[in-house]
Amino acid sequence: MSKQPLVWDAVIIGGGFYGCALAVFLRQNGHRVMILEENSDLMQRASYVNQARIHNGYHYPRSFITAWRSLVNFPRFVIDFRECVDNSFEKIYAIARRGSKVNAYQFKQFCQNIGAPIRPAPTPIKRLFNADLIEDVFTVREFAFNATALRELMHNKLTRLDIPVQFNTTAHHVEQVDGDQLLVSLANGKTLRAKAVFNCTYAQINTVLKNSALPLLPMKHEITELALIEPPPELRELGITVMDGAFFSTMPFPAESLHSLSHVRYTPHESWADLLNGYRNPYEYIASLQIQSNERYMIHDAQRYLPALSKARYVRSLYEVKTVLLKNETDDGRPILCREHYGLNNLYLVMGGKIDNIYDVLKYLQQFATTAEQEALEINHDKQ
Questions:
Q1: How far is CA 238 from the centre of its chain?
Q2: What is the pLDDT of residues 365-380, one digit of tens each?
Q3: Are 207 and 21 in contact (CB under 8 A)?
Q4: What are phi and psi of 13, to 5 degrees?
Q5: For residue 379, what pLDDT is reported?
């Protein structure tokens, strides 16, 4: 490993997928980058505990921009991370007859409008559903990612680019020093200096801001449950989502060779908004809870629409904090959060609601990323 600088070009707080991908991007553009991760490995929290869905637009018929960006980013993600992609199953979207916020015709028109592939599901698949409760069933193009394989890939990228990671390290707060430099104070009493700091801590973004005496963002946090099941044989090679409202999804979770089961009504156990209900540290709070699984309610309700789920075997549940911006509670959108110079010069806040949003983040930060390359050219020119 090369000698570490006294002042880093960029310190990234958070070793989730976004933090790692941003570090790779910045390093490839000439920056000297350090990652701080409070866990013992990369991608241990929200980057792992999610539906592992690679979105292609279908999930957001009430947010055209989010759907469109997913459709644009989908093929690029599938190519760039091909060794982590599971496309061995058929993806099915079913529209409920009652209670859905879009009907089957509207869903089909929405997909056609954004250019997302959609066709009627084969009759044997349609027969898996309760026709009294399901209006129509479609086959679409959507994949899953293997979070374990993705973590290993990011490890390899960071190693190859000589990007150091300090594990078991919590960044407590950030402050401005010496003009535009930033000082990152760690919970262990040590400090790091950087020209720029990227807060990529997802649910902990407000925690770092609070400790830094900076204004909190209007974020909502949910304590969520992702149930892992062994599906019956007839569902093993299918990923199924029933739309659009208080319904459910079950699809392959490649990292554990199981299926996930999530339910809009029963996956969230409780929620709070930092600016409305008072701040609490999300990870400390979830660690203090003794959560009783809602898996029986998920399966009981979902099997009304998909009777074969009654034969599924529940294995275990994963619990995590899900964080969204309050303004997206009504339209179901999942835009990226990118704030620059937030209260301090060169302090950046970065958060995305979906894994494929990473390309929107990198596009937004392209101007910052190229600064180092431009400066290097100017320095070399001066030396000549």
A1: 22
A2: 887 777 555 544 443 4
A3: no
A4: -95, 110
A5: 39
Q: How far apart are CA 98 and CA 23, in angstroms?
A: 46
Scored b (16 or more CB within 10 A) or e, 148-179 reads: ebbbebbeebbeeeebbbbeebbbebbeeeee
Nearest residue to 130 via CA among 242, 18, 298: 242
In three-state secondary structure terms, 86 is: strand
Nearest Cα to Cα of residue 198 among 33, 45, 325, 321: 33
Q: What is the DSSP string of 180-219?
A: TEEEEEETTS-EEEES-EEE--GGGHHHHHHHTT-PPP-E
DSSP 101: S
Look at strands 181-186 and 171-177 and give their pairing.
antiparallel
Q: How far apart are CA 32 and CA 182, in angstroms?
A: 15
Q: Which residues contact 151 (CB under 8 A, 6 or more apart)?
A: 41, 42, 43, 47, 48
Q: What percent of the chain has pLDDT over 90?
A: 86
Which is nearest to 207 in space by CA: 198, 195, 216, 220? 216
* Distance (Å, whole) CA 35 – CA 162: 11
How much is the pTM? 0.92
Bridge-partner residues for 239, per DSSP? 91
Please report, for the chain, how many H helices and E strands are present, in that order: 12, 22
